[in-house]
Structures are given as C-alpha cells and as structure tokens.
Amino acid sequence: MSNARMIVAATLTLVVSVAFADKLSDFRDADRKDEGCETIPTTYSDEREACDEEGPKVHDWCDGNRGPVTCGSEEDTRKPKRDIENAKRNISDLKDKRNEAESNKSNASTDDEKKKFDDEITKIDKDLDDGEKALEEAEKALETRKKLVEDTINTLDQCIAYRRAVMNSFASAIDKMRNEDETPEIKAVAESLVKKYETAKSGHEVQITNKTNASNNCKEWRP
After folding, report:
1. Dihedral of alpha carbons 207, 213, 214, 219, sign
2. pTM of the prediction?
3. CA distance 177 to 97
4. What is the chain's Cα-based Rg?
5. What is the band of 5 on the pLDDT scale with cuts at 50, 70, 90?
6. Which of the four pLDDT bands, split at 50, 70 and 90, describes residue 21?
C-alpha cells in the first residue's frame, strides 16, 4: 500500500473513531437522564427537536393550564335539565292555581271571600316570581354546563394530539436506537436508552387512553 493510501486509510479510521466517540458521548449524556426529552440524544435531532417543541404543550394542555380536563359526571348534565323541567312544571301548576283563584274571586259573594282569594293570588304571584327565577338559574346552569363540556373536549383533544406527538418521537427513537451497534459500548448504551423510551412510550399510551376515554365521556354527556 502506498504512503498516500495509508495516510487516507489512517485518516478515515481516525475520523470514524472520533465520530463513534462523539456518538457514544452523546448517548451517554442522554442515558444519564432519568426521563423526558433529554433522554433522546442530540444525534437524533428530528426526534429531539420534536419532543422539545411538543413536550411543554403536553403539560399546558393536559394539566389544566389551558382549560378544563374533566367534565365531572353525567349527573352534572342531568341535574340542570331536571331542574328546568321541574321549574317549568311548577310554573305551569302555579298558573293553573292562579286562574282558579281568579275564577273563585269572580264568583265570590262577599268581601271577605274576595279578600281571601286576593291574598291567595298575591302569594301565587310571589311563587311565580320565584319560579321564574329558578327557571332562569337552571337555564344558566345548563348553558354553563354546555360551555364546560365543549371547552373540556377541546382541551382534551389538544392534550391528546400533543401527547401523541411526543410519544411518536420516542417511538421513532426506539426504531433508530435498536440498530445502533457500531461498537459494543454504543450498543450497550443504546439498549439502556431503548428501555427508557419504551417506558416513556408506554406512559404516554396510558395517558392517551385515559384522556380519550374522558373526551368520549364528555361527548356522550353533551347537554
């Protein structure tokens, strides 16, 4: 082998050795982290950047900072509806009673009887005012419930989208890391990192399932 070829071969060997050393150092830095996006080495720039970008959004949308993440229960939808029905029924009954009292007053033959029915009508009118207020409050409660449900669905859907994006970063990192075997040292660190990614991916899958179920419940409980 000529001197020139020997120099080229030595240079290539040195370049490869340096590259492997840099990769090993990068992988080891990532492996020192217990969890999170920092466990993805900077060598995997696409996965790391995607995780770093979407990760903070997961906390914003999934932890309640950007909106409600629970719709409560189905009873929280049923109650205002039931209160509206009861209020309307009560108002209808009171109106019937008032009509009856008005009729009785018209047929009264003495002033005492007329006063008796006047007093009854006055009380019914007060009850009607209270009934109208109760109906108004129940209708407002239903509107508040509607807004909460829609806001929660939106928040949960955003949470799921960002969490899935982060999960996909780890899934992609797993696929790449499983092929890292240039040296025994790199392979050993890669195997350690794969375990961390699988744990992270599994954790995101569980949370996505939980949030999806919560979103589906909200959709079923729409007023």
Report:
1. positive
2. 0.81
3. 79
4. 35
5. low
6. confident
CB of 186 closer than 8 Å to CB of 180: yes
The CA-atom distances, in angstroms, between 76 and each of 62, 79, 86, 153 are 22, 6, 16, 15
**Residue 68 and residue 61: Cα distance in Å, rounded?**
9
For residues 13 and 11, what is the distance between their CA atoms, to the nearest angstrom?
Answer: 5
